Amino acid sequence: MTEATAPGAPDRPPIEHPWSQAAEDVLRALEVRQGSGLDQRTVGTRRRRYGPNSLRAAKPRSAWRILVDQLRSPMVALLAAAAVFAFLLVDWIDGTAIAAVIAINAAVGFFTEIKAARSMEALHRLGQVTARVRRDGRAREIPAAELVPGDIMLVEGGDVVTADLRIVAASKLQSNESMLTGESAPVAKTLQPVAEDTQLAERTNMLYKGTAVTRGSGEAVVVATGLATELGRITELVAETEDEATPLELRLERLGQRLIWVTAVLAAAAGTVGIAAGRDMVEMLQTAIALAVATVPEGLPVVATVALARGMWRMARHNALVNRLSAVETLGATGVICTDKTGTLTENRMAVIRVVLPTGDIRLTGEAAGAPFEAGGRPVDPRQHPGLREALEVGVLCNNAELSGADDPEGPDAVGDPMEAALLVAGERAGISRQELIDALPEEREEAFDTDTRMMATFHRHDGGLRVAVKGAPEAVIAACTRVRSGDGDVGFGDPDKQRWLDTNAAMGSEGLRVLALATRHGGSTDDAPYSDLVFLGLVGLDDPPRADVREAIARCRSARIRVVMVTGDQALTARHVALAVGLVDDGDAEVLPGDALKPIDQLSTEERERLRRARIFARVDPRQKLDLIALHQLGGEVVAMTGDGVNDAPALKKSDIGVAMGQRGTQVAREAADMVLKDDAFGTIVLAIEQGRIIFDNIRKFVLYLLSCNVSEVLVVTVAMLMNAPLPLLPLQILFLNLVTDVFPALALGVGPGDPRVMERAPRPADEPIMTHAHWVAVAAYGALITAAVLGAFAIALLHFEMPTRAATTISFLTLAFAQLWHVFNMRDAGSGFLWNDVVRNGHVWGALLLCVSVLMAAVHVPVLAQVLDLEVPGATGWGLVLAFSLLPWAVIQAYLQFWPAAADLATAARREASAPRD
């Protein structure tokens, strides 16, 4: 293809029907060599011509859209009505003041929400998919968005396909194309052209954007990117949708909508009572509107977004990248963690430490130089030990990992499966180079590892014939062998001999080693079955020490009443040893159940379900059985987190409530299916993420509790005064001012607090627990009543005892309510937490909000223009004494309650007790 003949539209592919042309012709048309790829100059030209390799995703919310959204809330509508009403009555001061309130409120919401929105966009960029390509003759990893037509892409099992590709080289390549075709079975790929009119599902020489490579490896040339791909054409047919709200945001929205109706009733009742009592109708209408505005918690959606986004950033700093916003809130309710063993509970730094042969037990020392192999305390030279050398050669041949820098004093860099890399390192220590061995014994065929057979085989040319190298699970390999390599040659391998080796395997597993069996065969053809007539060579024991921080993380899970379940494909004894080492189980509670015990729920009795739910270790588990385990715990009402790293783990990651993929060793398919990716593959990171999830939910609950109790106090102060036929303790503009200043900023600060350090010492909340339970509504009423009593008390004393003018008394009630609401923020600490050291006191944002609010209140009293607008005056020493005494009174009562009756005051416990229900 020349640039002159290339299609001009960026949404059209540069070559038509590539599946109907030979691979060589496609490469020629795209002017690229398979061995070297594109050069950077050509890449730049094509990127300008075809644009980025991205679909037309929903555009980020613009600043203008965010600003307009601030003006579309019910509260703004009420304020606007109040402003219009004031202007109609030629009350220019009140009308202007209300308009200013609208502007200030919109500004606060705008700057808060835009920061959260941009934070979310930045987090999504952290999770961008990469692609491996060959450019300028070198393999490199680039962002998938930078792919251009003509790029030579390297693919292997576990990769997500990020452009439309024509395959030019393949080895056992298969892909899952269900996303495009609906066919769930993997599709085997070939190089041969197919007819031009072949349906998409039958184009066996193509890989399509959005599908997943499930097996094998290969090379392919990019033939379409972005909207020119098949997936891009489909997305063009889908209408642009709005951003999906999280379940928590939807619950908050429903709560706000209900409160609007309550607001209308309360405001109408207050206005009616005032008018019936003979008060000025205009003043009562203004008061009713102000009360309606005060009751609506306008900040609910903003604080939810800010809290969730901030929580995602905290998790990202701790190596947990959350893919979906809704996962943040779900994490807080997680009650069961199903985790694999290798790399999550262990360090995934495998090393071969034993090779058990029919002729003896050989151990590898930790010394890289000198004599790394020894038997019975004496050094062993692999060159003089045919059995050891042959076993190590099989481990090196039957292998897809690569080593670089083998001579590096700090050890070689490994690319590939850590277990296979460990076999290569052991071979290097014996003087066996994989590249030299492959040059001498070229590979003719590979039988990839399969979860059904639990074995892998490679066929190699050797002395005019074939040599087959096999490795896999000891039970599987031993069962497939008919002979054993002994010091006297190959001898029969009967059932008693096999049982002895199985016992040896069990003994090695009980030491915590991961065990592989090695076998070989000479002769035959590449068409022969790989696992027949094998000669058993021995067992290899690999050490993978537990992570140092896992024991502490599991202990935290226990204190948080989170059940940790090990789900591994390894053998039972190895799993049990690791579980004991990390403190997952005790000696008396170390039963290991096989994966075969996991069946569909309708095939299990009640007793079997209970036994499986109590089990902490499952061994030899396949991907299908993971689905049954998740369903079992979910039926019991648990929120389940499941870890995974392979292609076959994707269904389990999708089915679980929280799918957790490994960022270091996980495949792209697993990472795409997961809700959260662990950048360090560490179990402790999952626990930290759950802690953040709990903190976020608690913070939002505190915000709602604080805001509603403050709003209720404002309504009660005015309503009770009118019922008592007393002067109004608050004027309409004063109510609006309080709603803007003392409500919003402390509430926002509560929403982003560090959280209670004891949050992991309590049981997880039920997944369906509402934000505001009955216990919380009772607390709102009690808090609001206390603040109301204090404000009306100060107002009455100012009027009756000190005989202050109404304006001065109103100033006292206004300031008492304002400061009572500010001090009330400290009542949001958890019951039983320290009086002087708790999550609210430790929250720097709270102190900043209080400083800002106090400064604004001082300005409202002492700045003449503000004082005139709000109808306030300087209270004097007596007035300030009343304000401080009565504003501190509710705080003192509630603090005493929290300090001396923590069990009764623990709203979280009451909420969980209220929301809990019998579970299956």
- Mean pLDDT across the residues is 82
Helix content: 40-55%
The CATH architecture designation of the largest domain is Up-down Bundle
**CATH class placement of the largest domain:** Mainly Alpha
Instruction: Briefly note the structural class of the backbone.
Output: alpha+beta
Compute the number of strand runs: 28
Q: Which oligomeric form is depicted?
A: single chain
Q: How many strands, which pairing sense, and closed or not: the largest β-sheet?
A: 11 strands, mixed
Q: What is the global morphology?
A: elongated
- The total tally of domains equals 4
CATH superfamily of the largest domain: Calcium-transporting ATPase, transmembrane domain
Unreliable stretches covering 5 or more consecutive residues: 1-10, 237-244, 916-920
- Please tell me how large the radius of gyration is: 35 Å
What is the CATH topology of the largest domain?
Answer: Calcium-transporting ATPase, transmembrane domain
Report the span from N to C terminus: 64 Å
Strand content: 15-25%
Count of helices? 31
Protein architecture, described:
With 920 residues, this protein is of the alpha+beta class. The chain folds into 4 domains: 18-53 and 147-236, Calcium-transporting ATPase, cytoplasmic transduction domain A, CATH 2.70.150; 247-313 and 689-913, Calcium-transporting ATPase, transmembrane domain (Up-down Bundle), CATH 1.20.1110; 322-346 and 547-681, 3-Layer(aba) Sandwich (Rossmann fold); 352-526, Calcium-transporting ATPase, cytoplasmic domain N (3-Layer(aba) Sandwich), CATH 3.40.1110. Helices cover 48% and strands 17% of the residues. It contains 31 helices and 28 strands. Strands 10, 11, 12, 13, 16, 17, 18, 19, 20, 21 and 22 form an 11-stranded mixed β-sheet that branches. The chain has an 8-stranded mixed β-sheet with strand order 8-28-27-26-9-23-25-24, sandwiched between helices. Strands 1, 2, 3, 4, 5, 6 and 7 form a 7-stranded antiparallel β-sheet that branches. A hairpin with a 2-residue loop joins strand 1 (130-135) and strand 2 (138-143). Helix 9 runs antiparallel to helix 23, helix 16 runs parallel beside helix 18 (572-581) and helix 24 packs parallel to helix 26. It starts with 22 loop residues before the first helix and ends in a 5-residue tail after the last helix. Residues 1-10, 237-244 and 916-920 have low confidence and may be disordered.
